[in-house]
Amino acid sequence: MTESFADKLKRLELELEAQGKVLPPRTKVAKPPAQSHDPDLIPDVSPEQRPLDNFLDSIDILDAYDRWCGKSMP
Description:
Elements: H1 5-18, H2 50-58, H3 61-69
């Protein structure tokens, strides 16, 4: 059976401690908030921006490229 990450980390910390070395303390990293494309769930979207967001969500990237860049698809 393979060693889990947590077990390997603990083993390495013990080995370093036995050698007189100490790792710096770990800091907790906050998880980023969940991303959602639902404008009702995003608090910083004003009601004036919601129609624009809905429009942008409805555009296919290839159609937008063809329409506004003026280059044809290969």
